[in-house]
Structures are given as C-alpha cells and as structure tokens.
Amino acid sequence: xxxxxxxxxxxxxxxxxxxxxxxxxxxxxxxxxxxxxxxxxxxxxxxxxxxxxxxxxxxxxxxxxxxxxxxxxxxxxxxxxxxxxxxxxxxxxxxxxxxxxxxxxxxxxxxxxxxxxxxxxxxxxxxxxxxxxxxxxxxxxxxxxxxxxxxxxxxxxxxxxxxxxxxxxxxxxxxxxxxxxxxxxxxxxxxxxxxxxxxxxxxxxxxxxxxxxxxxxxxxxxxxxxxxxxxxxxxxxxxxxxxxxxxxxxxxxxxxxxxxxxxxxxxxxxxxxxxxxxxxxxxxxxxxxxxxxxxxxxxxxxxxxxxxxxxxxxxxxxxxxxxxxxxxxxxxxxxxxxxxxxxxxxxxxxxxxxx
Length: 355
What we know:
Shape: elongated
Helix content: 55-70%
Strand content: 5-15%
Low-confidence stretches: 346-355
Number of strands: 5
Structural class: alpha/beta
Order of helices and strands: HHEHEHEEHEHHHHHHH
Strand order of the largest sheet: 2-1-3-4-5
C-alpha cells in the first residue's frame, strides 16, 4: 500500500471536516478577541450632568460634541438623583458642577469597571480644563481593593461557563452526544442541574469568603452561578443533541468566541465596538458578568433583564434537548418495528424481543 493510500484510509472526510472546523474556530477566536479588545475607546457612555439651569444645556451640548463621541450626556436634577441613577446602573457617571466655587465633582463607579471609571475621569478633566475648572473624583460604587480592575466578576462567570460546557461535553463523550430517549435526556438534565448547584455554590464561596475578591451576598452569587452553569450546560447539550459532536464546537463558538470578549469583563460594554456591545448582553457570559457586578457593587439593582436572558438560554436548551431525545426515541422504535417480519412490533406473545 502506497503512502497516498495510507493517507486516504487514515484521514476520513468526517475527520477532515472536523479539523477544518477547529481551524475556523481558532481564526474566529483571534478575530473576535482582538477585534473586541485591541482598541478600547469609550463611546456613548451614559453620563449625567448636574449644573445650574443657565449652563446645564450648554454643558450637555459641549460634552455631547466631544471628539469621538465618548459620552451620551443628559441633564440630571441634582447630585442625589445622579447617585441614584448610577446605583441603578442607568448611567455610568456624572458631572456635578458647583454653582459657587471652581471645583466640580465627577461621580464614577469603579465597581462597574475601573478602566471605564478612569476613562470618564480623564475625559471630564480634559473637557473642564478650558473653562478653568478643577475636578475632584468621587467613587460612588468603589471596587474592592482585592478586585483588580473589577475583573473578578468576569473571571468568576467565565469559570462557571467553562464548567457548564465541559460537563456537557464529558456527558456527550462518555455516553453519546445524542440521548437515546427521553429518560436518558431527563437523567442528563438532572445531572447538569445538580452539577450547576454545586458549581454555583463552590464558585461563590471561593470568590467571597475564601479569597475576599468580591463583596455581596454569597447566596445570591451562588444562585447566579447555578443559573449560568445550567444555561451554558443545557445549551451545549442541546447543540450536541442537534448536531452531534459538532455541537461542542458550536458551544465554544457561542460562549467562548462570541460571548467572552463581548461580556464587558476586561473592558465594560461602553468601551467595546458596536458589534460586541450589541451581542454581549444577549449571551450568557455578558448577562452573568452584569448580574455578578450588580450583586457585588450595586445592591442587586438592574438584574431582571440579564436574569431573563440566562433563563431563556436554560429553558431553550432544556426544551430542545428533551424534544430531540423524544424524537430520536420515536425514530428508534419505528426502525425496530420496521425490522420485524411483517412490519409489526414484536411482543411477548409471539416469543420475540426488542433490544
């Protein structure tokens, strides 16, 4: 047998397609991460302006016309209202103009991302300099000293996501990518639910009491973790049930290639390009990171939408997994019945059995 014949026997068309798919994932990984993170410029950051009525409109217009459009300014009635909107995550910062002195205040929230908070401070100071104003910074929702650059929430959610799709992948590799019937699918769903609960609690305990990286309720974080792991795991199981082993690659595409760079972890959403800013909140890593930061630094505010996103992924993944398993079970029974002579199913009465 020649070397060419050996290659033909060793490399099947399916294997070649899988290798091509892996190469495509590799290139998409590079394009997605570098495309999202190579130039983090703040754009249209929701920003409040508290100023005397006679200068408020002019100042809003001035900030709105800054080169590159870093801010999306809007007038706010007073400092208390600006702080409330920051805590509710409606705006990311605010400028409070002193009506009597020459020192103004910029309110930021480093708990939502220290890079964004620092950028807002620099932008406001540069904008105020021509008016001979000085600026002091007040951090309304400061990040923990043990949470460098506010990244702990992101890494926590990434860990949960990794656990979700790895557990689903192991279930597929060890017992087949497509559950044989509804009962097998229910068992896998139950295993994934139990794994999610343990993984959620474990991650919350490590990030909180053990390392002290994040403040906030341990049990709230544990509940979030269980939902993140379950949503990612069931999405992976559904993709595996739909496409076989290719589903593992599709899960990596959705969660890792698209989800992680758009999650607002390394750089908050207002600093990402439009495409990644648009898809981030709709994917599990982005929704999970937002909720984790809200629990840790923003009193649990503004979490309804992201929790609904995670729930939708979990419900859709579970429903698709069970429906495909039921369909496969019916197809298998139909094939067995068709294999019986005469086209009738075997029964104990005629001495035949079905495997």
